[in-house]
C-alpha cells in the first residue's frame, strides 16, 4: 500500500525568516506561518481560529524565502507535515506542527515582482480549484 504525507497551506508569514547553514554549507530557512478559519457557530456567533506552522525550506528555495519573505506576507506552502511533541517549561505537553517545504510560492505582488519571470505565479494559477 502506498503512503502519502502532503500538506498545502495558504496563509501569512508570522515571523521574519531565519536562514542558517548546515555544517556542509547547505542553506536552510525557517519561518512561522499562520492560517485562519472563519466560521459561524450554531448560535450564530462569528468565530475565527488560527493555526500556526513552522516551515523549513532547504537549498535555493531557502535562499529565496530568506530574501523575499517577511512577516505579514501572503505565501503558499506545499510540503510534508510532522507533528512534534515536547514538554514546555511549565511541564505541560505541547505539539508543534512542522512542515518541510517542497514548494513555496510568494503570493504578494510586491514579492513576486522581485522574482525572475519563471517565479512569477499569480494566485489564480495555483494547482487546485
Short description:
With 129 residues, the chain is mostly beta strands. The protein contains two helices and six strands; from the N terminus they run E-E-E-E-H-E-E-H.
Structure overview:
The protein is mainly beta and 129 residues long. Helix content is 12%, strand content 51%. The chain has 2 helices and 6 strands; from the N terminus they run ββββαββα. It has helices at 59-68, 109-113; strands at 7-13, 18-21, 27-40, 46-58, 74-87, 93-106. Strands 1-3-4-6-5 form a 5-stranded mixed barrel. It is globular and about 55 Å long.
Core attributes:
OB fold (Dihydrolipoamide Acetyltransferase, E2P), mainly beta, five-stranded mixed beta barrel, 129 residues, 51% strand
Reconstruct the topology from this structure.
Blueprint: E1 7-13, E2 18-21, E3 27-40, E4 46-58, H1 59-68, E5 74-87, E6 93-106, H2 109-113
Parallel strand pairs: 4-6
Antiparallel strand pairs: 1-3, 1-5, 2-3, 3-4, 5-6
- Beginning-to-end CA distance, first to last residue: 28 Å
Beta-strand content bin? over 45%
Order of helices and strands: EEEEHEEH
For CATH, the homologous superfamily is named as: Nucleic acid-binding proteins
Q: Which ranges are low-confidence, i.e. pLDDT below 50, for 5 or more consecutive residues?
A: 115-123
Strand order of the largest sheet: 1-3-4-6-5
Tell me how many strands there are.
6
At the fold tier of CATH, the topology name is OB fold (Dihydrolipoamide Acetyltransferase, E2P)
Give the CATH architecture. Answer: Beta Barrel
Amino acid at each position: 500500500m502506498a503512503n502519502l504525507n502532503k500538506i498545502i497551506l495558504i496563509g501569512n508569514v508570522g515571523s521574519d525568516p531565519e536562514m542558517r547553514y548546515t555544517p556542509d554549507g547547505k542553506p536552510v530557512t525557517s519561518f512561522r506561518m499562520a492560517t485562519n478559519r472563519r466560521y459561524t457557530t450554531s448560535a450564530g456567533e462569528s468565530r475565527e481560529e488560527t493555526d500556526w506552522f513552522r516551515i523549513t525550506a532547504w537549498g535555493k528555495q531557502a535562499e529565496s524565502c530568506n530574501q523575499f519573505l517577511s512577516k505579514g506576507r501572503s505565501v503558499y506552502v506545499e510540503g510534508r507535515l510532522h507533528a512534534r511533541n515536547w514538554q514546555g517549561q511549565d511541564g505541560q505537553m505541547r505539539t508543534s506542527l512542522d512542515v518541510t517545504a517542497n514548494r513555496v510560492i510568494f503570493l504578494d505582488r510586491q514579492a513576486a515582482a522581485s522574482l525572475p519571470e519563471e517565479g512569477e505565479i499569480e494566485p489564480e494559477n495555483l494547482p487546485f480549484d
